[in-house]
Amino acid sequence: MTDRGSTAEELASRQREIAVSEFFLKNRHLLGFDSPNKALLTAVKEAVDNALDAAEEAGYLPEVRVEVLPVHGDVLLVAVEDNGPGIVEAQIAKIFGKLLYGSKFHKLSQSRGQQGIGISAAGMYAQLTTGRPMRIISRTSPKTKAWRFVLSIDTTRNRPDLHRKERVEWDRPHGTRVEMEIEAHYQRGMHSVEMYLKQTAIANPHVTLHLSDPSGRTITFERTVRRRPALPVEIKPHPHGVELGRLIAMLRATDAKHLSRFLVREFSQVGSKTAARIIETADGNLTGRSYPRRIAHAQAKRLHQAIQKTRIAAPRTDCVVPIGEDLIVEGLRKEITADLYVATTRPPAVYRGNPFQVEVGIAYGKPGGVGLEVADGGRIRRIEAKHASEELVASADEPARVLRFANRVPLLYQQSGCAITKAIQHVNWRAYGLAQPKGGLPVAPMAVLVHVASVWVPFTSESKEAVASYPEILREIRLALQDCGRRLRAHVRKNRSLKKEFERRVEIERYLPHVGEALQRILDLDDRDRDRMIATLDDSLHHSRSTR
Amino acid sequence: MTDRGSTAEELASRQREIAVSEFFLKNRHLLGFDSPNKALLTAVKEAVDNALDAAEEAGYLPEVRVEVLPVHGDVLLVAVEDNGPGIVEAQIAKIFGKLLYGSKFHKLSQSRGQQGIGISAAGMYAQLTTGRPMRIISRTSPKTKAWRFVLSIDTTRNRPDLHRKERVEWDRPHGTRVEMEIEAHYQRGMHSVEMYLKQTAIANPHVTLHLSDPSGRTITFERTVRRRPALPVEIKPHPHGVELGRLIAMLRATDAKHLSRFLVREFSQVGSKTAARIIETADGNLTGRSYPRRIAHAQAKRLHQAIQKTRIAAPRTDCVVPIGEDLIVEGLRKEITADLYVATTRPPAVYRGNPFQVEVGIAYGKPGGVGLEVADGGRIRRIEAKHASEELVASADEPARVLRFANRVPLLYQQSGCAITKAIQHVNWRAYGLAQPKGGLPVAPMAVLVHVASVWVPFTSESKEAVASYPEILREIRLALQDCGRRLRAHVRKNRSLKKEFERRVEIERYLPHVGEALQRILDLDDRDRDRMIATLDDSLHHSRSTR
Hints:
Two copies of one chain form a homodimer.
Chain A (H helix, E strand, L loop, with lengths): L7 H6 L2 E2 L2 H7 L9 H22 L5 E10 L2 E8 L6 H9 L3 E2 L15 H13 L3 E6 L6 E9 L4 E10 L6 E9 L9 H11 L4 E5 L5 E4 L22 H10 L5 H8 L5 H11 L14 H13 L15 H11 L4 E6 L3 E3 L2 E11 L7 E3 L5 E3 L18 E6 L2 E3 L7 H8 L19 E9 L16 H53 L3 H20 L2
Parallel strand pairs in A: 2-9, 16-18
Antiparallel strand pairs in A: 2-3, 3-8, 5-6, 5-8, 6-7, 9-10, 11-13, 12-13, 13-18, 14-15, 16-17
């Protein structure tokens, strides 16, 4: 050891526990709070996710109000109010004032929230940037008054710091309202709160959403169906997705006294017959009456292998609730003007034991078509299109717009890192008549909607902006895209031939001057004759091809 | 509420705290454990990061042994051993058996590890996939025996579950050895353990690394310099990077009795004069003797604004230690055969109050050059190149290889989501004579090394595979790339003209048949004359351009 170096004892004195709130405060970009633009959207999204989940779980048709109001300078007030069942007094502080606290993490069931991080992280960001606590009003029944909480998060301990708590009058029969002041920018365009709500409306046609923006404008996205989607059923893990270590932990933790009871109770799709077959395959002195907690490592390993070898029914499908092909087409049609709409809902599949289901919808073409027309003399002309940045269908020479959804929640950031984008890029769209640069998105007047629903969506970060690239998920998305692509082909074909011809001619025109120079030398022409020759060639090429 | 819906009380009964270890176990892809290929590399990386940090902090020249040995089936034994100072008995269990525990999180100082998650997460993955506990041997001095710990992680409580603890003989004077059995694949190529160690050697020329792989092969990357890099100095936050909410929290937490003392003690680059100026600017009844804990919200806000308005010296630069231009060139030269090497180290800069520093090194060209040559008659021919997949310089028609480093650690995954890649894509490489598809990496026989060093590297996920795109970081990388690009230009120019000409001719040849058809109609040629005309045109075009 040299001078300035530390001994093991000195190093030890610096070791400390890190509160999860400190961790995420320092790494707030992991939660989607890396810039004032994104922070607003993330805060709204976390609150709306919770609002929709709560209303649906309680059996209400969700109606959510989002208010974004100017306070001063860069500070905005964000308020989100729902008509859900409300939150009981004892839970309010922890739900909003503690990270990693919630009801959705420990169960396998499709919901928008799953981590127990989002809303308290939004409050933490508010606190960090404006120093202001969150304000929550919640009422569980018209028979009782509402509770009003003012609280912040003690970030060094990850626990709520309650400023005030009181009974108040509130003119809603039940529901929750959360308010926070955050440093943020209200922006327009693809990453705006409005776009987020618009896409939410597409994937949730049973929901009504209201938005009041800082300019005082109010927009309502009205529900188009009054039928609630089925409530997803909560499931146990599927035995084929359980790793050895997890099996060992489950054996240690179970209350079941017998191995066969353990298998039936702790897993989905295992009845007593399947359990018996697993145990028989495992052998190693295991019987249906073996005591789970006493099973040794070597035996657990045999059991794990036996599970892999045994045929077990695929996970039940009612744990995942898709939007459905009809409603996807209806949603697209309502918000996007296009020539053709197609949608596919795949059957449920499984990754790492988690059931999931993929849906794809495509809106193709729009007034103005591919933006090309055949003029007199066979020349193809480009039609001027109005700017499409606010629209959800791209114009003909732009990459297709991608609308990504996970458990009905629109994903607006990290498009390039998302399994959905990768799957779209891996499909050969040329086979369906679309242009596609190598490894890129198809270039077409098109919006591609992809919905991944799962009891546990594997996101690439806690900000839940992109789906991780598990091979099984990539595969299902690809199959759904290909199905839609095939149905698109006939429609695309006529636009394609026009476009291809146009591109060929543009390239020919680019090379004519070079040909002219060469001809001039070979045939010994003067400049005027050369130019005439080029003009004749040009006309001739256009004419010959357009009359074919 | 309708049937099947839950009341607020029912929902409340499901609310639970989530242990951070449970969270990451379920989200293990966030930590880099999403596939058996990646899991091996991540486990090795976390252990090597810790090994290098420990040895350097204690003032030793690091020497690290990595062993990857087959156990059975898909199970590998991973062992990493260092010559660091060892770990004192009381800390071993927590460091390896608890997530979010460590010495590096709470200080602002450049180190490889920073989160206190990595090594315990690797152990958790081992436990999950093989059910086997970690084994640790550590010795702090030749005067004492070593400690041997066998432990796993109680994931529902995030705390170590100690299986055994004993004094043992160990033939090293000091250091730490960690062993775990994990389900993993040993692969070759760009994402291999070998490539990771090779790149580690490039960025850490003072380190010696040994690798034993499952086939029994042993490779050593020997250090090329015996001089240790300077130890980075720990700093306080810079006042310009502190948000209002954090300032308020700091005011509440400080031991300082006076505001001026608080400013001087808790921040870097604030002396008593600067403190006085800040307080004067803030006004609002604040004086140097105000009691920090009693400062109200409105006053804190004035203080925060005053800090932003006051000129304060840039952060001191010795908190970040770059590799240095000479050592980057030396490292590249040692591992990569190329024609030209350039490197740039930027001065330190700041994002969100955190000092950071960017370095870029480029190795350009390799035996075989751009893979083109001028043959007789002016025709340009493609030279067959041997396959370059194992090499770090791309071949002429492939995108440049990107070698990304953060605090001297190679980043092997999530290239497309990394600020480093984005910065390379945003530079206009055409200005330096390189081909570049729109929005893509330059296409050239080239390796681009980028090193981001910081007291706190903002990673895009806990797996620390990509740097988040803070604008200040993107800007510094771009400036460094541009500097290297300018020095590359002269060298590239001669290769470029050859390449450009080649591409032009390929395109001309593609269109000659169309021209031939048109000429045939205009001049009324028969097929033989048409073909002769095309051949003459072809020769003429090649000749005329090659003699220009």
